[in-house]
Amino acid sequence: MTMTKKVAVITGSHKGLGYAIARQLAQKEDIQVIVTSRNPQDGLNAQQRLANEGIQVDVHALDVTSVASVQELATWLQQTYGRVDILVNNAGVNPTMQPEEASLLTVDIETMLATFSTNVLAVARITKALIPLMSANGYGRIVNVSTEMASLSSMGSDYYPLAPSYRLSKVGLNGLTALFAKELQGSNILINAYSPGWMKTDMGGSDAPFTADEGAETAVYLATLPDGGAQGKFFGEMRKFGGAIALPW
User: Fold this and answer.
1) SS3 225
2) I need a surface site. Which of 81, 99, 114, 205 has the fewest CB within 10 A?
3) Where are the strands (E) in 140-182, listed by range?
4) Residues labelled catalytic
5) Which GO-annotated molecular functions does the record name (predicted)?
6) Residue 91 and residue 66: Cα distance in Å, rounded?
């Protein structure tokens, strides 16, 4: 089937930031949201929680690290909706709390590789798979969830933990964003990265100053950019900066 609503895929959206992004986008009348999760039951549970609020979403299993899973999703989207308009690459891992992440001298290289595989290569995989569905309709908005910790301009002086696996993976994600933007220049497919900030999620903990709903605001803004909007930029969270502010890489 085909439809006139924009179709939005949010990776890792059964809880936390991804769930908040999915919820806010699904409240817009012209967007059909697809909640994805590695565990199918987690996705169904999220769908039911949203349904209890009167918010209707579709759901599909997705393991972003699996070639077969990503291809299965792309095929299903083509057959079910005939399009994809919005992709929010939210799924990721953060091993920062592991003791060896306190120093480059103790960091485990296998952990670095696994983090890079999920936070960079998996994003490349699903973005490559879904761009053709965007190109077919001449429209796309891609949002990559990054972090201020990946800003090279401030990395040497910021107050964040060293966290080499997480930081370097997000540096890679920012580079991926810039390269995709270069390749997509002149099209109506806009790709940007943003930092959601420190949020009260499983990853951020209860001491964080922002909620997941607040962290989702910039993602929703970038996912609904008008034609001719920002391309290949790195944004801070809107609540912290008082608006959509592009940060230095």
Assistant:
1) coil
2) 99
3) 140-145
4) 166
5) oxidoreductase activity, acting on the CH-OH group of donors, NAD or NADP as acceptor
6) 13
Query: Per-domain residue ranges for the chain?
Result: 6-241
What is the full DSSP assignment across 225-246? PPTT---S-EEPPHHHHTS--B
Kindly provide the residue ranges of all beta strands, DSSP E only, lying in the chain, ordered along the sequence. Answer: 6-10, 31-37, 58-61, 86-89, 140-145, 189-194, 234-235
Both tokens of residue 32? 């059909």
| Beta pairing, strands 234-235 & 86-89 | unpaired
Closest C-alpha among 1, 94, 4, 76 to residue 36: 76
Q: CA neighbours within 13 Å on the CB side: how many for 122?
A: 28
**Residue 201 binned pLDDT confidence (cut-offs 50, 70, 90):** low
Question: Cβ contacts of residue 105 below 8 Å, gap of 6+?
Answer: none
This prediction has a pTM of 0.94
Pull the structure tokens for residue 128: 């490559």
The arithmetic mean of pLDDT across residues 169-191, rounded, is: 97
Q: 6-241 maps to which CATH number?
A: 3.40.50.720
